[in-house]
Amino acid sequence: MTFQFSPFLPWLAIALIGAAGLALAALGFWRGLRGAVLRALALALLVLALANPVFLQEDREALSTVVPVIVDRSQSQDNEDRTAQTNAALEGLKERFARYPRIEPRIVEAGDDGKSDTPSTRLFDALNAAIADVPRSRVGGAILITDGQVHDIPEASAFSSFDAPVHALVTGRPDEFDRRIEVVSAPRFGIVGEEQELKFRVVDDGKGPDTPARVTVRLNGNQIASEIAQPGTEQPLGFTVPRGGNNILEFEVEPVTGEITTANNRAVHVIEGIRENLRVLLVSGEPHAGERAWRNLLKSDTAIDLVHFTILRPPEKQDGTPINELSLIAFPTRELFVDKIKEFDLIIFDRYQHRGVLPILYYDNIAQYVENGGALLIAAGPEHAGNDSIAGTPLSAVLPATPTGAMNEAPFYPRLSEQGKKHPVTRGLEGANDEPPHWGRWFRTVDVERPEGNVVMEANDGKPLLVLNRAGKGRVAMLLSDQGWLWARGFEGGGPHASLYRRTAHWLMQEPALEEEALTARTFGRTLQINRQTIGDAPGEATLKLPSGKTQRVALTEAEPGLYRAEVQTAETGLYEITNGDLNALVHVGAVDAPEFKATISTTETLKPLADATKGTVRRLVAENGEAISLPPLLPVSGQVRSIDENRLSLHMTDETVLKGINSLPLFAGFAGVGLLLLAFSAMWYREGR
Fold first, then answer.
1. Which of 186, 180, 182, 128 is nearest to 159 (CA)?
2. pTM for the full model?
3. What's the rounded Cα separation, in Å, for the pair 430 and 433?
4. DSSP for 330-355?
5. Which residues pair with 574 in a beta bridge?
6. Predicted confidence (pLDDT) per residue in 395-448, tens digit
7. Closest Cα partner for 373 from 518, 471, 468, 443?
8. Is the Cα torsion angle 39, 41, 45, 51 positive or negative in sign?
9. How far apart are CA 183 and CA 537, in angstroms?
10. How many CB atoms lie under 10 A from the CB of residue 322?
11. How far is CA 619 from CA 626, 630, 645, in A?
């Protein structure tokens, strides 16, 4: 109840009237007039009536006390025991809150939403979001149901504006043990074929057995080492980067009986393989129009170191000129094809024929080079169909096609074969989808018998034009025409000679992206894209193995000829394994060092400093023997919580209210006010009249 004035006239006018009344009253007292007291009282009541005194009564409603309950649903909580403890604690709290209608619980489940690349437990972000729409004076406290592995705990001093207790109900048992493995230091990049070194460590959290651990190391899915590691000790590992692009190193430590989870028994490190410049040997049998097209293309590729020789003076060409007067250098055959042949990634014979420059034994050496993993490209012209063809040397053991001795001289449009439309070397060549193809014609090819391997381009009547084949560990390609230079010169609009030559060369040098049968995977944020390349029939479904060990079938749909694709939205962070037939691929989703998997044993120590600073409590839900501990009751406290109550969850009850309405009572309103004034003036007149 409050009292205030609501004057009918301005205060200045009321003051003047009051002053006049006071003067009249004073004059009456000075003159000793009868009824002076009643006159003064009547004037005072008149002035008071003009001031209009009013009694006010506010109608207020008490606001509820907001208590956020943050439930940890992160991956470290995702096991049967902790999930059951969390659910039981949440139901118990709901039952207790139901007894206090003035308390408004706000239950928020916080976990990895599947969008973050670095999953972590961020309960205080969820807490701040839960109370963002209410003043802090209405917050009675906060209750966290968690395993204690929280990664956004603020400093107690930074949380001083939260003037209410923070309580934690901790899942898990106090005697938990977990063994995990982590990569301590490792290079992010490595030269392909060179030795690299990293260090890893096995860590025992909690009361572990402290026994040596066996660690299996895999590189791109293939086991490369099996090590015995002592927990807590850094251990080095040497390895060789096998290929360019992403290489996935996977470390797996054997599980130990009694550990709470095996989800962190695997660690992953991704190293980017970088190729040194590829070395290419180009040998042109004689000067011709197409020689420069090969040279210009290979020289323009900064990833290629080119060694080029053109045979200008074969042995039979003797004109008597002294050697010391020639500006030519001798062809270093032994150095190239015996001593240093293994240093080359690709050898190209461009319109080369056997004319005695290379001893016959060297062709066998080249064939062995291919079978041991080398690459050979034959760019053939009319000489390949003649008597001096290299197909008549020991090199024929690795060549996929044998010439018949004839040349096909009719003009034709090079076309992709059915396999060529699917093969990554020729698929999507610009102009290939038109009929006739949107490029210039060629005018001759070497006629060959039925070739081995894959015919990816054809001439007239389906005759082979470009043949790709494997020989032992190596690869061979034969381009059965020497007129690719017509495309380079723009004849009849030219053609995609650069793409064709470059892709062929890189396929020969075993570029992973150009494999005709391959299964690859990559990620875009949380989207996992699976690509299956094949030149055969539809590959069917792929099997996806998640980091948790669960598997699911994934349908692959044709995106382009020979390329099947699927996209999967992922929620788990870790290593995914994809298999399709005999092929498999590995890909890691999210950060490889996510905090969520570094430590998983439950703890009360992380939240205790903040709880102590806010007069809250941290207590476990399960005893060491595995028996459930009774959930503590709620304790509503009026005013500030000044002490820690270990046995109850203290909550500061707010005294905030909301104004619903105001009731006013004017003293001089209605008949009562008029009657009081009439009574005062009537008494004055009555007294003066006697």
1. 128
2. 0.66
3. 8
4. ---HHIIIIISGGG-SEEEEES---S
5. 589
6. 999 999 999 999 999 999 999 999 999 999 999 899 988 888 999 999 999 999
7. 471
8. positive
9. 41
10. 6
11. 14, 11, 11
